[in-house]
Amino acid sequence: MKVTSAEFVISSPGIKLCPEGQEYPEIGFAGRSNVGKSSLINKLVNRKNLARTSKTPGRTQLLNYFLINRAFYIVDFPGYGYAKVPQSVRAGWGKMIEGYLKNRKELSGVVLLLDIRHKPTAQDVQMFDWLQHYEIPTLLVATKADKLSRSQQIKQEKVIRTALGREQEKILLFSSLTGQGKDELLSLLEEIVQPGTEQAE
């Protein structure tokens, strides 16, 4: 898939204010704060500042919608796991995201981003478990792949799989710096949203 257009549409505080009346499929992008989610989205769509990081990590509790090729939405979830966020905010985040995962009929899949340098956190495991519980197609993407050697990458892939309890799960390595994994991820996204993509063409 080639990205020919990408535009910000809306920031929604929950499912009740998500776009209605359009049958575009949606792909969620989830990950903890500072995992490199905004950089990855910007790299995918060839834009420097389409997805912007919050000046206060973890406090922006909104679903950011980006319309891609006028065919499907990328839905950028707020980052989770930021240590300074109050418990009440973390609880609200969980309630909003689980409500979206459970009830949003347009949701076609989720890209779960994990920092390849670290073992998945408890919140990462919880997010993955939610996705499996609601039977949502999930792509695991390990960000910041350029930070490790190939031997280190192989070791960390095993750490991630073990933490998630999925020894055979495919993990796509991605680098927003070098572009590693970009074309493969775009192809996988196209497979998920193929009906909408074909209609748009």
From TrEMBL:
Residues 23-195 form the EngB-type G domain. Its cofactor is Mg(2+). GO terms for molecular function: GTP binding; metal ion binding. Keywords: Cell cycle, Cell division, GTP-binding, Magnesium, Metal-binding, Nucleotide-binding, Septation. The keyword Nucleotide-binding applies. One of its GO terms (biological process) is division septum assembly. InterPro entries: G_ENGB_dom, GTP-bd, GTP-bd_ribosome_bio_YsxC, P-loop_NTPase, Small_GTP-bd. One of its GO terms (cellular component) is cytosol. Belongs to the TRAFAC class TrmE-Era-EngA-EngB-Septin-like GTPase superfamily. EngB GTPase family. Necessary for normal cell division and for the maintenance of normal septation. PANTHER family: ENGB-TYPE G DOMAIN-CONTAINING PROTEIN, MSS1/TRME-RELATED GTP-BINDING PROTEIN. This is Probable GTP-binding protein EngB. It comes from Desulfofarcimen acetoxidans (strain ATCC 49208 / DSM 771 / KCTC 5769 / VKM B-1644 / 5575).
